[in-house]
Amino acid sequence: MVRFGGVPMPEETVEDPTLQHNFKGHKGVVHACAFKPNLKQLVTASEDHSLMIWSPGVPNARAYKFSGHTDAVTAVAYSSDGTTIASGSRDRSIRMWTPSIVGLYEPKALKSAHGGCIRSVSFSRDGTLLVSAADDKTVKIWGAPEGKFLHTLSGHINWVRCAEFNHDNGLIVSASDDKTARLWDVRGQRCAFIYDDFKAPVRCAKFHPDGAAIATAGDDRTIQVWDIRSQKLVQHYHAAHGDRVNSLSFHPSGDFLLSTSDDGTVKVWDLREGQLFYTLNGHDGPSTCAEFSPDGSFFASGGADQSVMVWKTNFDAVLKKHAGATDVKLPAPFTAEAPILKDDPRAAPVMSTERAMEGLKAGSTPPLKENKNKEPVKTPVKKPAAAGGDGAIPEALAQTLGHIVGQLDVLTKSIGLIEERLSANEDRVKDLVGIAEKKSSSARIAK
């Protein structure tokens, strides 16, 4: 375990994350994990075709193993009320399980839910919707818990690795092997924006808890955080891992980001400071998944070593420091009705989908501090969402128009220089022709 990338902190009083449990039971790679909202159970999905439910808070508790899929289980999620578990598999099916005190009732199977391996399943915050992503290049939306098919979102041109809703179900973010991440307008059933500044497949994309940003990572070993109001890169962690990044998970406060990688490490990033917070070396081989608990007090990780680890975060001291800091601007609530838990440093303000779509307005406070490792990235010029009815031009649109005007000015100057050079070349050609004619005339006279 390494604190701040190995740099000791003066008068350090922060406790290290501590390993609480190291569960063994799966017979294959652990692909995904999810906490039950009440924190009493943890569900994991594995290459061994099974789900397992663990009870971290109960000493020596027996784990329950459930089978039903006919191939590797690659995705799993708990509904917000804890009444339903959704799983996705390489057998192309989605199953809705109902936990009970005696195990899981016979699941509702959505056979052939996709045309390829299902890589991701995720419930909406209110538990009424489920989004899935698969190797058939699509993102699909289902009613929950009945599993009724609702919509297909098409646009990716390669496998879609993950997809999830924002807090009010208005947006979905997806990541794909086609080297893009996309924001989808759920109500309009269309792609709202494409992030295409990636040089390698994007394996994961997650919404920041306040809804104002997304984090992305993938095969290029880097982690990026984007402000979705301006579509600009806010933080860039170059060479965040020594191998491809497999998963991301935000702490409920929005101050920390958890990442896993084929390099075998689990890393915690301090987004307020824009730097590495912890490196955890627990798994023997690639770490494949990790998730914070709903209250942020624990996180779980899974790996190719078939083990499931549960860690206590011990972030309270740092969260209190962040909450009381005078040199760090905390994001103000984005809506008057933002559900903030008073006196709880783990609570994050929430931004509505409408606000996210209208673009960053002048005077808005960026949700995160820009990190020093940020590298300049070309932001794609795309049509921004329409602004509200106040007649004001959004800053994002104004910046785009200003950029276009500037480029046109450069183009005009370039054309002017080309015309001047052409004129100069024409004059030179005329001079050379005149000299040649004189020499030819002199030669004829000499004869």
Automatic annotation (TrEMBL):
Pfam families per UniProt: WD40 (PF00400)
InterPro entries in the cross-refs: WD40/YVTN_repeat-like_dom_sf, WD40_PAC1, WD40_repeat_CS, WD40_repeat_dom_sf, WD40_rpt, WDR55/POC1
Record PROSITE patterns: WD_REPEATS_1 (PS00678), WD_REPEATS_2 (PS50082), WD_REPEATS_REGION (PS50294)
Chain residue ranges for the region called Disordered: 361-389
WD repeat placement: 23-55, 66-97, 111-152, 153-187, 195-236, 238-279, 280-321
Gene3D superfamilies named among the record's database cross-references: YVTN repeat-like/Quinoprotein amine dehydrogenase
SUPFAM superfamilies in the record: WD40 repeat-like (SSF50978)
PANTHER family per the UniProt record, alphabetical: POC1 CENTRIOLAR PROTEIN HOMOLOG (PTHR44019:SF8), WD REPEAT-CONTAINING PROTEIN 55 (PTHR44019)
Listed name of the protein: Uncharacterized protein
Protein source organism: Micromonas commoda (strain RCC299 / NOUM17 / CCMP2709)
